[in-house]
Design brief:
Layout: E1 7-8, E2 11-12, H1 21-31, E3 38-39, H2 40-47, H3 56-71, E4 77-80, E5 83-86, H4 95-108, H5 112-122, H6 139-148
Antiparallel strand pairs: 1-2, 3-5, 4-5
Helix pairs in contact: 1-3, 4-5
Length: about 150
């Protein structure tokens, strides 16, 4: 939660590894839907809100290849019919999903685990996906996490 970061073996992947802002945005979009395929048209609309490039599928493939290189593993981003998905747990974990999972378990058990997961994930960073506060694609996810909090 807070600022987006990818951790590999406990260390943050540096900005230069992504080779551009759109790669980080692509990863943030996929991270808000871990394990679920996101159609190319949904990704293109989120990545190019002012209008897609001439060949959005080819541009998406370039971004996905860059993301895979930055993550160090092609298997972490799966290719499906007309879309992509970030691998789910245990290959990839998303802190906000850990929080929501703990909250859902807490609804059945107790609230302490959810609050601990939230505090652990949030730290002093602030709101989830803070750098995408005004991005249309991020609104539903941000609202879901803030309401859960």
């Amino acid at each position: 939660m807070g600022r987006f970061a990818v951790l590999l073996d406990g260390r943050e992947v540096g900005e230069a590894a992504y080779q551009g802002r759109k790669v980080r945005t692509l990863l943030r979009i996929l991270a808000t839907r871990p394990g679920r395929f996101v159609p190319n048209d949904v990704l293109a609309e989120a990545l190019w809100p002012d209008g897609p490039p001439a060949n959005p599928a080819a541009n998406l493939q370039v971004l996905v290849n860059r993301a895979r290189r930055a993550l160090g593993s092609a298997e972490l981003i799966r290719t499906g019919h007309g879309g992509y998905a970030l691998a789910g747990p245990p290959a990839c974990t998303v802190d906000t999903e850990v929080f929501v999972g703990a909250l859902e378990r807490a609804a059945r058990l107790e609230g302490r685990a959810a609050l601990d997961a939230y505090r652990s994930a949030l730290g002093s960073a602030g709101d989830p996906l803070a750098e995408d506060t005004y991005a249309d694609w991020a609104q539903g996810y941000r609202i879901r996490i803030l309401q859960a909090r």
